[in-house]
Amino acid sequence: MLRLYLLVSLTPSKIFDLDGDCAQRFCSSSVTLTETDNNFVPVPVTGLTQFDPSLGNLLTVVIRLRDILEFEGTLTNNSETPGTFATGVSSDLLVEVGDLDFDLDFLSANFTSPLAGVSEEPENSADFNLSDQINVAFINTDTVDLSSFIGTDALPASCSQSLLAFNGGSDTNFTVSRVIEVSCSIEVTYTFEENEIIPSTPEPATFLGIIAVSIAALASRTLAKFNI
Fewer beta carbons below 10 Å: N end or C end of the chain? Predict the structure, then answer.
């Protein structure tokens, strides 16, 4: 008895997170702001891309932001009078990703130290290395327009800050040599529903052709077996 089986493979839609392919699915980039990057002047963040719509239907966009303030230097008393001296810095960071704006909480780093007079060098100086950071995550909701995240172009993004550095102490005759850096990191992850693949159905003539070829092959093997 000749039995024919028709196997049809259906690919269901999938919802999953993808990573490691910045060109289509997952992107991470950062920029470093210095003391001269101030007064909310945007600094572009490059290397982020939009979601390629050929992959499927975009469901969610997850944006993770990291803001790190690094403050280091040396505080020096230049007078003969000992005293307690202070220095500090604060940063207010704005981040733009696509059409979305984020105003992160203030970061601050402060240093206070008693210092001897200049005649007692090196006790009249103190080094400091401080940092502060914040991490936030945003997941879009149904009320958020994702159109700016869809396409095949670069995803526009930028970071800008308002930076305030201050000095203070019991005497004005002191100096601070400092380096201020703010690292602004942006990570974007896309979650999407994969396009469903619908298999084509062969025409009736195709089925007849498959049956005819199968019967011919079976008859040929039978004849060869019995040397007929």
Answer: N
Does residue 71 contact residue 131 with C-beta atoms inside 8 Å? yes
Amino acid code (one letter) for 173: N
Tokens describing residue 209: 């052709």
Nearest-CA neighbor of 129 among 43, 76, 71?
71
Q: Are 24 and 52 in contact (CB under 8 A)?
A: yes
Q: In angstroms, rounded to a whole number, what is the distance separating the alpha carbons of residues 45 and 66?
A: 13
The 10s digit of each residue's pLDDT in 167-190 is 776 666 888 999 999 999 999 988
Closest CA to 67 of 139, 146, 162: 162
Q: 2-11, 78-87, 189-198: lowest mean pLDDT where? A: 2-11
What is the distance between the alpha carbons of residues 226 and 118, in angstroms, rounded to a whole number? Answer: 113
d(CA 101, CA 190): 18
Does pTM top 0.85 for this prediction? no
Q: How far is CA 64 from CA 119, 161, 165, in A?
A: 51, 18, 27
Give dist(CA 59, CA 190) in Å, integer. 8
- Please report, for the chain, the start and end positions of each structural domain, with discontinuous segments joined by +: 15-200
Give the span between the Cα atoms of 188 and 100, in whole angstroms.
12
CA distance 37 to 162: 8
